[in-house]
Design brief:
By secondary structure, this protein is an alpha/beta fold. The strands form 2 sheets. Strands 1-2-3-4-5-6 form a 6-stranded mixed beta sheet, covered by helices on one side. Strand 7 and strand 8 form a beta hairpin. The radius of gyration is 19 Å and the shape is globular.
Length: 306
């Protein structure tokens, strides 16, 4: 089975999907509403494949830049492709409003943007091609057949989102945004549940041990240089270990701040300014998807639960 990256631009980001050239072809992640027609279709035509022949749409998680094109891609397949997502992230596929609610529950609490809800609502309306009921809900542990002798194993790897999954096919492992390293364009790793994120990284490193690891974005090393989205076994081990190392540093700074008591200040990182100072982080925390506040809220929630 050959794997072909499919890239579509979106602002500061490159949106990556992957075409699995199997007897029943699959696409992993779908970008935004315009991605299938403007990015995927011409890229597939260039390698002699047709978007109409895609039979599986495998979603690694529910964020807008991964599920936004799902309905449009499904339509281009003549509604014949089966759409797969973890049950915990399925609400993000079913309803645009779920993306707004996620914003309000998490990072929106700290951004102090009176237009925040309206902006996220407008973004969801613009870049999600349609609301869609998934055809296959997974929890992890399933095996999907892509025809012939090609199978895909589904692994639950929560942390970045509750319903993040990895799709594994013959040593090739597709993880979406579940391996953050030092973050992508915003320069900070984003996850909603730090404890689950750590366990998922260890599971990938110690149990799955990818021979090839496929990332949802070109995540960055400690020195700021980006990985590609296709990592070999050595790069995969490095990226997984660096992801654990930076989470440990972020987690220690976050716990100190939370135990001391978060303080509202004039800092753009308020009430977590000591975390940014401790880590030397100088990125703009208001730029969407705002991983700084997403992760800080994750630590705060986790500490409250403990």
């Amino acid at each position: 089975m050959n794997v072909h990256p499919l890239v579509s631009p979106w602002g500061r980001f490159g949106l990556y999907s992957f075409f699995l050239d199997a007897p029943e072809p699959a696409v992993v992640d779908t970008g935004i509403a315009s991605s299938p027609a403007e990015g995927m279709a011409p890229a597939l035509a260039a390698i002699g494949r047709r978007i109409e022949d895609v039979r599986w749409i495998l979603l690694t998680h529910g964020h807008i830049d991964h599920v936004g094109g799902a309905h449009a891609l499904w339509e281009l397949t003549g509604r014949r492709a089966r759409v797969v997502i973890h049950e915990a992230d399925a609400p993000m596929l079913r309803a645009r409003r779920a993306h707004v609610d996620e914003y309000l529950r998490g990072r929106g609490r700290y951004l102090n943007d009176p237009e925040g809800e309206a902006k996220v609502t407008a973004a969801a309306d613009a870049v999600i091609s349609g609301e869609l009921e998934p055809h296959v809900l997974v929890q992890g542990g399933e095996t999907l057949s892509l025809g012939g002798d090609v199978t895909v194993s589904v692994h639950a790897i929560p942390g970045h989102t509750p319903g993040s999954v990895a799709y594994e096919a013959g040593g090739r492992v597709f993880v979406g945004d579940a391996v953050q390293v030092h973050g992508a364009a915003n320069g900070f790793p984003g996850f909603t549940d730090p404890a689950a994120y750590r366990e998922s990284l260890r599971f990938l490193r110690d149990e799955i041990r990818p021979r090839h690891l496929y990332l949802g974005h070109p995540y960055r090393r400690a020195d700021g240089t980006p990985y590609g989205v296709e990592l070999d076994a050595g790069q995969a081990r490095e990226a997984l270990q660096q992801s654990l190392d930076i989470e440990a540093r972020v987690g220690e700074a976050a716990r100190r701040c939370l135990l001391d008591g978060p303080r509202e200040t004039d800092s753009p990182y308020s009430p977590f300014a000591p975390v940014a100072e401790s880590l030397g982080y100088t990125g703009d925390p208001a730029l969407e998807p705002s991983p700084f506040f997403t992760s800080m809220h994750g630590y705060r929630t986790h500490l409250d639960q403990d």
